[in-house]
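2024-03-11 09:14:02 DEBUG pipeline.ingest accepted 1 chain
2024-03-11 09:14:02 DEBUG pipeline.ingest length=146
2024-03-11 09:14:03 DEBUG pipeline.predict start
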Amino acid sequence: MTTLEFKIEINAPKEKVWDILWNEETYKQWTSVFCEGTYAVSDWKEGSKIHFLSPNGDGMNSIIYKKIPNEYIAFKHISELKNFVEMPIDPKTQEWTGAMETYRLTENNGLTVLEVKMDSVEKYVDYFKTTFPKGLDMLKKLSEEK
């Protein structure tokens, strides 16, 4: 696996950026670049499950590995979801199960720096290198306009 890193400066306090990242409505907006209608289902507590879903019920079964509100969150990806059902880990899934995705926010004088790191299997590296910055640009726009 390859660890990809993305970084963006946002002219808004980190509490606001955090809210835009994980608030149900704004999450759907900035993640729409990956798949229109994407959403997450969780109680958002450290150690809890989180399902990242497309409208048809496909997606990722993960856990919230670590959470420091307004500063840091880490997701550990476990398996796929198909039609809203957690799939068992199979040989295809085995190559990426345990992959991490982290978001770190630091603020200096009202300017927030968001750093994202994510593990990706080789076949999706180019997709994420192209698409993830678009999602972060949308996040920046949402954070700076409201």
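2024-03-11 09:14:41 DEBUG pipeline.report The chain has a mean pLDDT of 95.
2024-03-11 09:14:41 DEBUG pipeline.predict end
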